Amino acid sequence: MQNIKIISYDQRVRLFWALVAISMLSLFIYIYAVNAIARNIVVKQDLERQIANISNNFNALEFTYIELRNNVTMELAYQHGFQEVKSPLYVSRAHPQSLSFNTSNR
Fold it and tell me: Disulfide-capable partner of 77 in 24, 82, 101, 102 (CB 3.0 to 4.6 Å)?
């Protein structure tokens, strides 16, 4: 004897509408995913364009800095109020222990 399972008409209708609902849900998820991917691509391209602009701006600023740095002379420093120190103060590296700052309270 075989076990034959009979699907009634009501069960077939419910199964059909469940499959239709699953198909529609899958279609909406697919459309949303494609839309999200397209938006993310546009945002990525915009960010890459901004990075290129900022990089070009940075390069221009770097060249301006180098040009200004190369134009600094002793005469220009004197004009801006800088003075040459007659007896410069240097930190000696011969005795590094003597330069420690003890913060412990003993």
Answer: 82
